[in-house]
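User: My instructor asked us to take a sequence, write out its structure as tokens, and then describe one feature of it. I'm not sure where to start. Here is the sequence I was given:
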Amino acid sequence: MKEKQLINLIKAVDLMARPDGTTINELSDELGINRRAVYRLIETLESMHFPIYNDNTASERDKPWRLQPEYVKKMPNISVPELKLSFAEMLALYLLKGEATIYKGTRLEAEAQSAFDKISAFLPPPVFKQLDKIKTLFIPQSKFAKDYSGKEEVIDTLADAILKQKICMVSYFSFYDEKEKHYLIEPLHFFESNGGMYIFVRVPKHDSIRTLAVERIQKIDKSEETFEYPENFDPEKLLESSFDIIYDDPVSVRLWVSTGQAKYIRERKFFRNQTITENNDGSLILEIETSGWNDVKRWVMSLGAEAMVLEPETLRQEIIHDIQRLISNYNTNPTIVDD
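Assistant: Let's start with the prediction itself. The structure tokens for your sequence are:
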């Protein structure tokens, strides 16, 4: 039986247990269902052998439905709490739900939906109707999201290991080496970035904090050996200080941004430590302190001719070299091998 049906049955029994009972119209109003659904609900209660009866002396519209007094005395005090969610709280819930698109197609998505269904079951009818309207405000996007179907057991094991601080052995496919590696990890925190799920781990062998892409974990075995959380490790500070997911030596970059692109730079904060200097022609100079050399380079190059690195010279020369290679690629017809 679905949660909403069960909740309605309990509410109906609670209303019929009142000294004056309840009418069909009252049940319809209180439960937010039509009269036909109320009669079906009464039939269900009768099939479950609840001792309910009605006063045939009154009109069909006004006759009360009651539980037998002897049964009410024996019945435990049951009542169903109603969640009083404000519009802002409902909005926040659906914003959070929209952020979970990386779990699309996995058991986690189904479990999250089940949780929302259970919450909805306890909402009063007017709020429930408003909740349906709020659903239409958001269109969740799964574009560029990684596929985590089939990785539920890996995610469950990692989550359990984080909570219980258990050391794990993982088989991890490294894109850098193009091979599968096997080593011990101490799982610390999950985080999301650009549609992907990552995890901070400490690798005891190297005594270092690493970032693993969850989908590249081929196998995981949780041991019974525990670990101590590393001192002075602040994951939020680390995430804020990096441009994307690469955490290496700090880098200071001074960047010119065109007039056309400047308005997009002004409207959001790209870096925790950034300074903007306005130019008279509407362009700007963006100075940043971050980490992730290659991440910064890719971002600058994604802006095309709308941005130019002023400092450091090393980064500037790397981008010039990559642009020259790009031009060379476009001037050369690629070799296509037929199957």
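For the description part of your assignment, you could build on this observation: Residues 313-331 form the longest helix (19 residues). Try explaining in your own words what that tells you about the chain.
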